[in-house]
Amino acid sequence: MENESYKKLYYHAFNRLTDLAKEIERTQNELEEMYLEAGEHPDDSTDQ
Questions:
Q1: What is the DSSP string of 10-48?
Q2: Rounded Cα–Cα distance for residues 6 and 4 (Å)
Q3: b/e for 26-41, b at 16 or more Cβ within 10 A?
């Protein structure tokens, strides 16, 4: 029975880590898009 608890905890942790990895990848993609858009339209206030 204890073995089953460890299996459940392991799979829960594995699934959670997988979800977090996907979320990090989505965030990286969004940031890359924002960076590229900023490069296309530079902010004039930083040119001093």
A1: HHHHHHHHHHHHHHHHHHHHHHHHHHHHHHHS--GGG--
A2: 5
A3: eeeeeeeeeeeeeeee
Buried b / exposed e over 13-25, threshold 16 CB at 10 Å, is: eeeeeeeeeeeee
pLDDT tens readout for residues 18-29? 999 999 999 999
* Whole-angstrom distance, CA of residue 13 vs CA of residue 21: 12
Give the CA-trace dihedral at 10, 13, 15, 20, to 10 degrees.
Answer: -160
* Tens digits of residue pLDDT in 1-47: 789 999 999 999 999 999 999 999 999 999 999 999 998 876 655 55
